Amino acid sequence: MNKKWLILITIVMLAGVLASGCADNAEDNDIGPETDTADDQIVEYEEMPIVEGTPFGVRMEYYGKMIPSEIEIDRGDSIVWRNQKPQNSYVLVSDDGLFEDKEMYAHDTHTHTFTKSGTYTFSVRDLPEMTLTVNVR
Q1: Domain of 108: which CATH number?
Q2: DSSP E strands, 27-68
Q3: What is the reported pTM?
């Protein structure tokens, strides 16, 4: 009788773990605030000091996509990549050499803070369609 309860509890616990890994969390979709800057309000960002910026989330999805695939941020803001793939790993590559290649396993994150204006691209090794373009103001 005790073995039946133990097996039942184990099955329920495994089902809970699997269900939590498959759930889409609305908080993971937050990529930060949107901004609307009129042309007459543009400021030369290179002269301004960098203050603690906003973190923006990028999901590395199971089906070979980064969401979003393009993002515009300010100097001092950060990108936080999160591997949403439930098994194996992705290797995140900074095509511009901002950091060394990062192997990211399921639910791992990697953060990079941008200190210079410009356009930067990121990809995943062996998945050329999985890219992110970051425009830093």
Answers
A1: 2.60.40.420
A2: 55-60, 66-67
A3: 0.61
